[in-house]
Automatic annotation (TrEMBL):
Sequence ranges assigned to domain D-galactarate/Altronate dehydratase second in this UniProt record: 135-270, 586-695
UniProt name for this protein: Altronate hydrolase
Region annotated Disordered, chain positions: 549-568
UniProt feature coiled coil, ranges: none
Family that this chain belongs to: Belongs to the UxaA family.
Segments crossing the lipid bilayer: none
Keyword annotations of the record: Hydrolase, Lyase
Domain D-galactarate/Altronate dehydratase C-terminal: 283-521
Amino acid sequence: MVRFEQIGVLPEPGDNVAIASRRLDAGTEVELDGTTITLPHTVLEGHRFVVVPVVTGDALTSWNTAFARASRDLVPGDYVCTPTSLAAVTARGVDGLPEAPSATNEPLDPFELDESALSFGAQVTSVEQPGTFLGYPREQGPAGTRNHVVLLATSSRSSGFVTELARRFDGAAAGDGVVPVAHTEGGEDEVPNNLHFLLATLGGFTLNPNVSAVLIVDTEGDVVSGEAIKNFLAENGYPSIKVPHAYFTRSAGFEHDLTAAGALIEPWLPIVDAQQREEVPLADLKIALQCGGSDAFSGISANPLAGQVSAEVIRHGGTAVLAETDELIGAEPYVLKNVRDLATAKRFLATIKSFKERVGWHGHTAEGNPSGGNVYRGLYNIVLKSIGAARKLPREVRLDHVIDYGEPLPGDGYIFMDSPGNDLESVAGQIGSGCNLIFFTTGNGSITNFPFVPTLKFVTTSARYERLHAEMDVDAGKYLTGTSMADLTAETFDLVVRVASGEKSAGERAGHSQVSIWRNWKQTGPREGISITTDGRMSRKLADLPLEDRDAPLDGLPHRGLTSESRTPTELLRVDDRLVPEAVALILPTSLCSGQIALRIAAQAELERWAGDAVTRMVALPHTEGCGSSGGASEETFARIMLGYLLHPNTRMALLLEHGCEKTHNDYFRSRLVEAGADPSRFGWASIQGDGGLDAVGDRVKDWFGSFDLPAPVAQSGDLGALTIALEARGPFSDATAEALALIGREIVGSGGSVVLSSRGALLAHDGFRTAAFGSADPVGPTIAHGQRFAEPGWHVMRMPGTDWMETATGFGATGVQQILAHVAGGTLSAQRFVPVVEFSNDPETVATYGDDLDAVATGDATEQARIGLDIVAAVAGRRLVPKAVASGNVGFQITRGLLGTSM
């Protein structure tokens, strides 16, 4: 027998369901209001059970808001579960669950504004004596809480460059350090649909008060260029950049450009390092409010605490910025209970409507927002998630302004910014708007950090705080165990002032960070048969959509192409039962939030040789997907790409590293591997949150790789017919080069190997290449979907939904490609982290300008160029040559969202 107070929490008086504060097994007896109730089923921590009788069809409530309807008559003790939540828990192998759900989600009917119910009150009262903190005064506006030199990539094409450039300044005396802003956007050939958001956010980064100097880096031909950012700032009335800054366009070899860019930065370092903190008003604090890895207690402890501390900042004249539009859908009445004026209320609702429309164009609704981790931790649907998220806005605090993504802050007070629920994408917009400190609330223990703005992480329960104390800053769970909210607010506010004044946050001590900007979306309006209608219906099912739109798998059978009898020898490796160019140990993050940790662990594993002689190298593949993005076709493509790398012929050992609260967690991929006919026990599994933080998960990964006693790969002679090669051409190329690439493909296929081409690539658009490769200039269509493994070797064409180079390279690798041979002109390419990218050119201007980055120069007629290409492929496959882009550190990895994916 246990008392209700020991095991349950009622969000507000009047609610008819409670939240379990710990796991309750079936048969548990609970004393509730003088009576004893017996739980017929297991109720996990954070999940809900009935506390008063509810009849069929009646509302189930938390914070006096309906989130579901009873599917049958329910009595006290009954487990509240919807079809989605029951499926999520069942997938985790929990025992003692009911056979059928007990509730259905509350429909998300469009919110109708009742103007008479609005309250236009005053903002919270100001303190008599506003406080101060030690910050860095800025000529262009508020003081900074940090003093960073920022290396800003205007597009994904420069992300590898700024990352490597920043690495070369590790440890330099430069204030709080030199940091890169590397991201995935703006890398396609056409104008992206998120261009305005990109320019606003990147421009806002340059003016953020935590930036003491900034180098803005682009590449020739970028749509999102330094010039575009400069023009955007001028045309939209932004102030000029007052800190040391420069614009740098890559125009030569990678090493040459690193040296030239470094020469621009070096004079700034002593200037930045000499700057001192001064006493500045707390009014200069601009707080970004975020939540991630939320659970059922987020709305009870961490979010209310973040809201109360924000109210205290506002009392001192500062600003708090709420975001994540789709995570307030269903909470409109709460948000608009206290608002500045009618215009602000209407703009808030217009923002939500616009977000719903954009998501609807892609065939999705906001109901798809909660991640698998959210649901597993008790947030059954978007209504529960939204009400809990809205608790970052205290009832007594007034909503003052509504702004667009990355729009400059219009004043002080409490502000809402439009953004997706994807944490990192949302944070980037807030930083672009001018926030200089981040409050990040989390239930599962999200470890997210931003490069030049400190993050304070509030965790919802003390048990989770103790498990992840090295990664968390605030134990909001103390509220659940007796500490008053007032005392906890005062304690946390003191920490905020100290961190704003220079004390390092847990994330800064850990030393990792990520940037992701609101990702491009492909649909710009409703499409018949795809888009969600205004009444929430989709006119057709996913399976009925065109193959290209949903990126559905194809039969994987090759085209009939031409072949040759030539054979180019190379030295390969006998690994287990196959002949391959290398044996890779792969650490694959299951979502964006574990990506940077995977990189750090892989680097340490490589240095310390955790896998011994069993592998030739360790690789991690950080990416932006797996959480905070829509499901459906986009998720299918993502899962297919991930499986492609796990099952790649070069992968000898593979471990999946989950963050712990994502949609595509470890259990998700276990089931996907089973569906693919693979044995999950072959793979390693680790969890940052589940294993207890960064140190603990690192030890787990080390132990797994060290648990094998595999023989070292054995060198064995072979030829290029053992390989799968992708052929690519970027920039203009001659007819002779087109024929040369066809000849290379003909040898590889003729000797038993496979060649993969992109459906959007320049090669397939060239009549001469098609004639030389396939014997006809007729169009050639896809044989495989993006990232799909093919059924038989030969000539293959991979469907490509866009033109971004890194997304193309990532798709190639997932198909089983072991090397990419690319002819380049007008510039060179970033390398893929897993698959070697070999670059050659026959263009004299490219050779003269970028020769240092080329692996070979192709001269002569088609036959001579083909021989040069085949020889360089053989040299790389035989490990006699490391491609220059790989050796220089110009590497990346990026997963497409296809035509129907969108941020949520």
